[in-house]
Amino acid sequence: MKINQFAQIDVDAEQALTELQNISLFTPTALTADLRTNLAHFLHRCFPEALTPSSQNEAIANLLLDQTTTVSAFLAAPTTLTAVQFYNLALQLLGFEATTDFDLADPLKFMRASQLAFADTSPLDNATLLTDIYLLLTTHTKLGLTYLDDLADRGFFATYTGPRPLFFNGKAQAVFDTRHLIKEVVYVEAPLDTDHDGQRDLLATTIIRPQVPAELKIPALYTANPYFKGINDVDDLLHNVDQELAVKSAADTPLPTSTTTLPKPRSVQGRAQQTEKIATDNSSYALNDYLLARGFASVYAGGIGTRDSDGIRTCGSVAETTSTIAVIEWLNGKRRAFTNRTDNIEIKATWCNGNVAMTGKSYLGTLAVAAATTGVAGLKTIIAEAAISSWYDYYRDNGLVVAPVDCQGEDTDVLAKLCLSRQKDAADYAKVKAIFADELAQLQAGQDRTTGNYNAFWDERNYRNQIANVKADIVLVHGLNDWNVKPRNVEKLWQALKTTGVQRKLILHQGQHIYINNMPSLDFTDMMNLWLSYQLYGVANNAPAVIPNVTIQDNLAAETWRGHHDWAPADRKRQLYHFTPTALTLEEPTDAAFVTFKDDNRQPFEQNKRDETRWLNDFITAAPAYAANQFRLKTAPLAQPLSIDGNVTVTLQAAVDQPTGLLSVLVVDYGQAQRLGTTPSMLERKGYRLNPAGQTDDLVEFKLQAATDYKLITRGHINLQNRQSNTTSLPVEPGSFYTVNFDLQPTYFRLAAGHQLGVIVYASDMGMTLRPQTVANYKLDLNACQLSVPFTKH
Amino acid sequence: MKINQFAQIDVDAEQALTELQNISLFTPTALTADLRTNLAHFLHRCFPEALTPSSQNEAIANLLLDQTTTVSAFLAAPTTLTAVQFYNLALQLLGFEATTDFDLADPLKFMRASQLAFADTSPLDNATLLTDIYLLLTTHTKLGLTYLDDLADRGFFATYTGPRPLFFNGKAQAVFDTRHLIKEVVYVEAPLDTDHDGQRDLLATTIIRPQVPAELKIPALYTANPYFKGINDVDDLLHNVDQELAVKSAADTPLPTSTTTLPKPRSVQGRAQQTEKIATDNSSYALNDYLLARGFASVYAGGIGTRDSDGIRTCGSVAETTSTIAVIEWLNGKRRAFTNRTDNIEIKATWCNGNVAMTGKSYLGTLAVAAATTGVAGLKTIIAEAAISSWYDYYRDNGLVVAPVDCQGEDTDVLAKLCLSRQKDAADYAKVKAIFADELAQLQAGQDRTTGNYNAFWDERNYRNQIANVKADIVLVHGLNDWNVKPRNVEKLWQALKTTGVQRKLILHQGQHIYINNMPSLDFTDMMNLWLSYQLYGVANNAPAVIPNVTIQDNLAAETWRGHHDWAPADRKRQLYHFTPTALTLEEPTDAAFVTFKDDNRQPFEQNKRDETRWLNDFITAAPAYAANQFRLKTAPLAQPLSIDGNVTVTLQAAVDQPTGLLSVLVVDYGQAQRLGTTPSMLERKGYRLNPAGQTDDLVEFKLQAATDYKLITRGHINLQNRQSNTTSLPVEPGSFYTVNFDLQPTYFRLAAGHQLGVIVYASDMGMTLRPQTVANYKLDLNACQLSVPFTKH
User: Which of A140, A478, A509, A513 is catalytic?
Assistant: First the structure.
């Protein structure tokens, strides 16, 4: 077990004592007290569920200082306290088991192996005891929380009367009671009329916040969540992907444009201090829930077209961004909200200090990115996980329709319909059915599945175009195995942010499209607590310097996260690999060589019940049914490990016997090894506590799985007609050779020595591209093919 | 979607009005009011989250009565209300979506198909409106709750001032606030000293209960849960199953007996009104949580040898039962508990009305069965799910060591160690380490893995021996695909209970070892609410007559549960199947026929990484690697469906070329079909609400899976030396033929017409039996073999 605590910050002894005093653990007189007195005082506070000295003593009596000394015996008779004894005690308090987890003879060995912080001074004096206790309170338990969090969840702050909010080791603590939360709904008036009813769109906004004294203003964590009010079944809207690529004309089809005039704001008929609708929705993100008890309100809004709001869904449009930031503007005092949709009674966010952070994953994180690129006032930071930064990079690639994995046939129109949860209210839906049908037609025209080209529609949905507006500091989190929102989205945003002056942080994990808040190996929640305490409460915890610029989870070893200066910088050295008929080589080949492959997956794919996951596995292992449909090369076993960092690029010279063609590339790590799963394994259902009121998340961890023969590193696709750019269509003459050069998805991947780097060139990707029904024959001129791999020594 | 509501009870119009009045929905004057007035009054109460008339009107405005009539329009102008209109409205309130789920032109068609209750009188008059509203409140929403539960979860009872507890339609309602629960620990003094420390064992007991007025006494749902305080890793204690069967001697090995004297009770030093330790544990069962808000306390105890308690684990012994019922005796005022383990301050369960039900699954349910067989006062009923009724039937079968599936090598000693959570407290564990080592040795002697015979050790652990003591009414729940606690445990208990006078109910589902409280297709939670309201609060709801004696989930159709009079009665007709070399036949064969098979699974099993699940699949499909290790027969395709009900029995005449031998039998349904999964599929994570405070469970359902070629129906195993009984060992002469006749696990299984009934005879079962390493050769005399199948026309 390895525990990586990036957010455990160093403080000096004076600061430690002040903070211990803030939580009523020690007073300054402790410095002159006896060591045993201080230890006993501390231990009696370590069992907040035990309300009497007898009950506390019983709990203390369960602890051993070493194989032969009980803590009770130590407290009864004066002697020295060694570091070994103290850390035996500390580990038991942290939930580790003597003998099972660690050896009482050498607890420090376990602490080193687990990467738990400790101070190896022995014997302890009174002063080091206090700083060691401070350190212990900031150290993680077996269940992924700091020990102070663990104590808080067991009632430590039940009788706390000090200042609220409370910060300890730079992070906000659970001193607010979340048993009686205020849960309410207001209707924010957005400067939009997307449903063309002549009235500005009202947006139902859910606020969940702890009860605090009236004079305390608290910040808000806002999650814009189009799925918040439920989703619709869209199976019948999915596009057929079993079809030919189009022969494109050179000219772009002009898009229809529509102009609407914005109605005037509603005239305010009164002002209220109280909302009039209770929110009954479940929250959508455990990090928000965790921070509720620590003094951060949670705010959720579905946005235009979702249930209980006005408007229609427009998938990634400027209007959607306007809808998203309207809520921030209200929280920041710059826009109106009403208590209901009828009476025009205004209500202000008087409880809010005006500071807002956005959180969320996938579409939710995407809208955080969208909001940040407006520079809206009040938005101090975003924590965007697995976020889209350009919708073209979600649904298209190099002039091809390329679906997110497991989403074949989906597109902006399908997603718009999926999220139009107004459909759930029959009478309400009747009002917008026709308007929304028009919008779907416009989305279908704009997304243009026929050409797959980048156009004005996609350009509107490329948030990176507005990068210069960004004022909020940015945390980006992404899975290196996320084939839904592919890593290009985060990489291009990361690079673009370098042109701005904002603080930026990046965390890359080995998962696919998941949250990472609940793993013992990474103190993600603490990192975000530190960050948000700094951003929204102005706590001087040095968060931008403490949190690494880039944190990357290792793909070879479990529970290993490292800080890096950067990811995928443009100036990484590159290793060129050349193509011969039998291997990927470092030496440039001299003999001319051509190879051929077919594009004819259809029959075995049907036989395997159109199972896309199985297809990919069979394809990578060159199963007989697919062997003729690919050209596969491997390097010799690597003499040294290789750390790929950034965009692998591929150059191919290819001909096809059809007037259209596409090329797909997989880059693969071949070699038998146990590898991390891309979905974390369950450690304990409901094992991760979020607050003293008993809310939980599951406790999970990425685990090494049974040995496999390969691991997909990265992939990419291109339309042969788009060999010049994703906006320009050039003709394809059957039999003519064309050169394409394109980036595969960026990554950070360590290949172990002895493994082989592999590349597979093919055409249709059953899980991602259109699947032309005509059998095509491809030819590669190997001398003009190469793979360029950026690498690092780190 | 099919919804089976067994606990929705009929009441007359007068009773309905009284109950509506109890929840302040209507007063008796409603009978003389206008229909529209009553409907409007009701609808305004259907949105308890909307606190003002404007806000309520907005919610009402979202509803359609039919394709062209909004509810708002109907309420504005007088006209008739048809049943179609009312049930369109009702379905929307229940969370079903117009167009998507049902057709506004014919809502009753959907209600019939879903089995939702309705009253088809049209147009409605004022009186029928009221009874229809009553019916609607008791009908399930899309998410598996009654509509009144849904309203409660959204705040319906927030302003309720009527009587508590409140019963509606015979079931307790969520009128208690569970945001501020009392969570406390007491120490019950059991009449035991299992850790031989000269003091009676104190048992930590966790109580979770709502705050209620002092004069209200409430009943308790008690879950005895040995896993409650955590479990230990026991991998190094697992027994090696890759070994030969023993040649047994005829004589039984006598077991060591130990006698201990029971210390005197502690002398009480004072009495307390308040506990002094707060419980911080998570609860272990969602049904208990659901009932908390409805006026039932939850009580959890780990029992002897678990963390924070005295004693040691003894796995199924009489002492364990004594430990289990000590808590009931305290709740019922007949035993002492203390506030801590030091001061001998007594505390009474003054909040309890003395009525206790036990709940829980697996070991938890087992201890409920154990408690019931003592006849302990106060225990009114148990709801035992997947419970062991005799530990021999859990770890042994017919003189063989037979493991629960996925638990090869486990035994009573392993389980005792697994649950000895005192090990988690280092100093506490040191006190009992030696005593527990002695106990492990005794368990190992008693369980006697060498012979596998039934002996005094197992007889102590056969709760059915005490069936005559049972006073509590019994609900049994079991999975027909549970190969952990095998169905024999519930079937033999069910039959034994027929000799008692208690009420008994049985629910058989198609799952393996799971809970079934959170599925939309069955109102299990309501059934238990009805039952417990009757048992513990004495509500005259006729529960014993309302709930079917036996409820069985169909294995062919999804979401289909039917009431039956009995299961596996002894007098079921039987169909005999004879063995020929090529088929199972109805006609008795005339020609002599012998067949042979080997017992030699080892090599392919190792090659497949000892994957037991894969082994079973390969074995049933007669994969080449295993084809020589079995004799497999099928009937001709069935002309008629066949409903198997009870114990399939098998008679075999076999010889083996070794001095030991075992026979295993699988009975299989062969035929391509979509079949229900044995684990429910996730419908919505956290989608099943437990109470207004926001606690949830996942919403799940058994779904038809991708088509498969077969389904295992039942199985069984026998040691050839135990052909006479599980207590008598007879010698096996190599080459001699012996007749065995034994019951396979009981079941209820419907074979569709066109399918084939199959039987596989073999020796080692890699997932369940010992695996002899010597290759053995078996011979069957087919003329003396047959399969006897009990069947029913139902």
Answer: A513
CB B305 within 8 A of CB B320: no
Name every chain B residue with its beta carbon within 8 A of the beta carbon of A68. Answer: none
Active site residue B239: no
B438 catalytic residue (yes or no):
no
HEC profile of B356-423: EEEEEECHHHHHHHHHHCCCCCCEEEEEEECCCCECHHHHEECCEEECCCCCCCCCHHHHHHHHCHHH
CA angle B390, B401, B254 (to 5 degrees): 75
Domains and CATH numbers, chain A: 13-162 (no CATH), 182-237+273-564 (3.40.50.1820), 574-792 (2.60.120.260)
B282: nearest CA partner in chain A: A694
* Residues in B touching A62 (Cβ below 8 Å): 425-428
Which residue in B298, B362, B729, B764 is the catalytic one?
Answer: B362
A291 contacts A359 by C-beta, under 8 angstroms: no
Six-digit token string for B615? 């082994």
Nearest-neighbour CA in chain A from B276: distance (Å): 5
Q: Where are the alpha helices (DSSP H) in A594-742?
A: 602-607, 612-620, 624-627
What are the φ/ψ torsions at residue B712 (nearest 5 degrees)? Answer: -70, 130
Mean pLDDT in residue range B75-84: 90
Specify the DSSP element, H or E, that contains B747.
Answer: strand B747-751
Full DSSP string of A332-365: TTSS-EESSSSS-EEE--TTEEEEEEEEEETHHH
- The whole-model pTM stands at 0.95
Active-site annotation holds for A794: no
pLDDT tens per residue across span A544-585: 999 999 999 999 999 999 999 999 999 999 999 999 999 999
Choose, out of B99, B276, B695, the residue to mutate when testing the contact with A (most A CBs < 10 Å): B276
Give the ipTM of the model, two decimals please.
Answer: 0.93
- CB contacts, 8 Å: A706 with chain B: 609
Burial B45-84 (b: 16+ CB within 10 A, else e): bbbbbbbbebbbbbbbbbbbbbeebbbbebbeeeeebebb
Look up residue A691 and give its DSSP letter. Answer: S
Chain A residues whose CB is inside 8 A of the B52 CB are 276, 339-340
What confidence tens digit (pLDDT) does each residue in A359-409 have?
999 999 999 999 999 999 999 999 999 999 999 999 999 999 999 999 999
